Amino acid sequence: MSLVGFLRVTFAVTLLVLLHFTLRPLLGWRAPIDFLVIAALLAAVRLRPGVAAVVGLLLGLAADALTPSAFGSGALALSAVAFLASWLKAVFFADNLALSLLFFFGGKWTFDLLYLVAERRVRGTELAMQLMMWSPLAATVTAFAGIVLLLVLRPVLGRSSA
To answer: Is the pLDDT of residue 124 over 70?
Structure first.
């Protein structure tokens, strides 16, 4: 990745982190948009798997700073999602919005699955309800927000490189 590409991705990730900690709390939705997952996925398709995992780890630690009772769950989940996204980027090389929508949806749902299992706060039917009802709804909202942000940030990010 060139220096200009690195600066573009850094700008986009910084913008998404700011949105996550400023806009998301103001919305107060039960199924909120996860801007950190979008940031990790946008960065992961432009980075190698190891570097993407480190970016996911750092973003996860930023999210975990607000939840000390489950510290590390977000870092583990987001680093795994970023690693897998970077590894699977060859499948999503084309700038196809439908594939990007599925990519964001799958990334967010995988993040929720790993996060909820790692934090061990919810169990049984509550876990099943979260994973089968609220997580897909949050993944859908995040996927549509990711598509909108991808279209808005396209001049900044440019095309993804394989």
So the answer is: yes
